[in-house]
Amino acid sequence: MAPRTRNPGTEWLASYASDPVRAHRRWASEELAPIPVGRCWLVAEANLMRSVDAMQRVGSDRLGPVLVHPEADLAWWLVPLGADQELADIRAITVRTPPWELHCPPAHAYMNGRGWLEKPDGSGTLTDPAALGAAFGPGGPMRLPVSAFV
């Protein structure tokens, strides 16, 4: 049997777990692994459908990993440390800081209703908080009043 090829995004995620070996064991058992925020990134939590729309406005050059849970209508964006201050005024986003944990599948799998819409690739790329804030904030999508359709 050939050795299993390691996924760089999965290895990157595991490297931030309190116990990387335990994270791999959980994933092998089809369980989500808890990855604590605050070592190198934070998590910006938002509505799934607004997130899907915002991903296009953020643009691929400023987009980092985005985990989704469709049944809960949630998306979690991996953002740099300090993003909590930059996104503080954006009501549609809740920035999760320590001691919060992101319960996630490996980068290459969909598990327990969660999957990566934008997969971690192992490079350490995170979503640009200014671009994320602009996509969700007042400069985000234009909303026409109902009277525009009458």
Mean pLDDT: 90
How large, in whole angstroms, is the Cα Rg?
A: 16 Å
Task: Please provide the ordered H/E string of secondary-structure elements.
Answer: HHEEHEEHEEEH
- In helices, the fraction of residues equals 25-40%
Quick one: how many beta strands? 7
**Quaternary state, please?**
single chain
Strand order of the largest sheet: 5-2-4-3-7
Low-pLDDT segments: 140-150
| Number of continuous helical runs | 5
Shape: globular
- From the helix content, strand content and strand pairing, which structural class follows? alpha+beta
**What is the CA–CA distance across the termini?**
66 Å
Give the percentage of residues in beta strands: 15-25%
Most strands sheet: 5 strands, antiparallel
What does this structure look like?
The protein is α+β, with helices and mostly antiparallel strands. It contains five helices and seven strands; from the N terminus they run ααββαββαβββα. The chain has a five-stranded antiparallel sheet. It has a two-stranded antiparallel ribbon with strand order 1-6. A hairpin with a 4-residue loop joins strand 3 (66-69) and strand 4. Helix 3 packs across helix 5.
Descriptive terms for the model:
single chain; 150 residues; alpha+beta; five-stranded antiparallel β-sheet; two-stranded antiparallel ribbon; 5 helices; disordered C terminus
